[in-house]
Amino acid sequence: MKAVLVIADGLGGRPSDCQGRSCLEAARTPTLDELAHRGAVGLVDPIRHGVRPGSDTAHLSLLGYDPYEVYTGRGAFECLGIGMKVVCGDVCFRANFATAEAVSDGLRVLDRRAGRIDAGQQLLAEALDGIALRSDREITFEFRASTQHRGALVLRGPGLSRHVSENDPHEAGVLIPDSRPLINDEAAERTASLVDELTRKSFEAWDDHPVNRDRRAAGEPPANVLLLRGAAELPDLASIEKLYGVRSAVVAGGALYRGVALAAGMASIPCPGATGGLDTDLRAKAAAAVEALVAHDCVFVHIKGTDNAGHDRDADAKTRFIERIDGEFFAPLIEQLDVGSTHIAFTGDHTTPIDFGDHVADPVPVLFVGPNVMPDVCDCFDERSAGNGGLGRFAGRVLPMLLGYCNWSPKFGS
Ligand code: ZN
Ligand code: ZN
Questions:
Q1: Does residue 326 have a pLDDT over 70?
Q2: pTM score > 0.85 for this model?
Q3: CB within 5 A of ion ligand 2: which residues?
Q4: CA 323 – ligand 2 centroid, Å
Q5: pLDDT by residue (tens digit) across 83-118?
């Protein structure tokens, strides 16, 4: 038996998306409709009724974890997702290259994304390497650039705390705020002052760096300061292998989703062409999933573009991308899998309606298909049909349900 979990980020929609129909309803999806015909559909509240999900917390919940118990912030997933080593006690941050100017009372942000810098980040990261942190010689840090203005930072050493405020002001024209301890505790105070120190030292190391001299000469904003947010420790997750005794893997273009899966003990399958955007190579992802199933029992595939189109409030882009998921991902996937011995689950991690442009608490359609799934009467995969589906409405835990159809669930009780 093999299992495939596919999550299209922000898949869910509302009637207001396309004049009375959601994007999923408006999209032509013959493959998904055929799978709905052969399987069963329903509605899932990614976390629980009435909770507006973040992508990280929703994924934890859909994978079977209780985010209220295990979630420690986004930074650790970002660090893991871009291949950094994270150990217990580290505090991880999401980082931005930003543009700032020195003023009398601090540093003022001019551009939070340094003009979406797309070259030279590696050289800037190297210029931070080896900088000693003032008071705390026993504290080390590692900074790594990822895509464009994004990066991640790990602080390592004794007595650190994730309970510190971010110093990203989320707007331009204002001073970079000091990081503050969020609890009354020496470790939080120390970590907050380290965040401030790192930000100051990044400005010292970068403002006159050759990369930025070139950027200024070309009329581009310098990437001269580091903003830090999403402080997190490594969450304590029992691995999928420990919980279910199966080998699992992830195919994802976005670092966050790879990070969540890695924290759950999945192996990351490289997939060139998976961009985490609307331009991703969906056929390559289907091929990577099929390949992953040779050495693994279960593969989780994350597809991000649906959410990007939702945040961009672009109904056409979301509808077209759903049609591509149908034709370029699911069609080749089921052609290459042995459908007699594979269970597939497909859902979203939340609803991202076009007119709202952000995540809402509405439930998301979910589909299960495979030899052990009792088919229901629905033969269409969308929000409206899913409301009449045989699976009813439930909260989270899609992966445990999928593994249950494969007969891999441990028994609770005797
Ligand atoms: Zn999401
Ligand atoms: Zn989103």
A1: yes
A2: yes
A3: 307
A4: 19
A5: 999 999 999 999 999 999 999 999 999 999 999 999
Ligand nearest to the backbone CA of 350:
1
Cα 312 to averaged position of ligand 1 atoms, centre (Å): 14
- Contact yes or no for 73/231 (Cβ under 8 A): yes
Give the helix/strand (H/E) hosting 395.
strand 393-395
Q: Where are the domains of the chain?
A: 2-71+237-405, 85-232
Give the integer Cα–Cα distance in Å for 91 and 230: 10
Q: What is the pLDDT of residue 400?
A: 98
Cα gap 203→224, rounded to integer Å: 5
The residue to which tokens 């971010």 are assigned: 166
* Measured CA distances, 337 to 289, 293, 340 (Å): 10, 9, 9
> By the 8 A CB rule, do 117 and 97 touch?
yes
Cα distance between the two ends of the chain: 25
Q: Where does 240-373 show beta strands of DSSP type E? A: 248-252, 267-268, 298-303, 342-347, 364-369
Sign of CA dihedral 66, 70, 72, 73: negative
Q: Point out the ligand nearest to the CA of residue 62.
A: 1
**CATH architecture group of domain 2-71+237-405:** 3-Layer(aba) Sandwich (3.40)
CA–centroid distance, residue 359 to ligand 2 (Å): 6
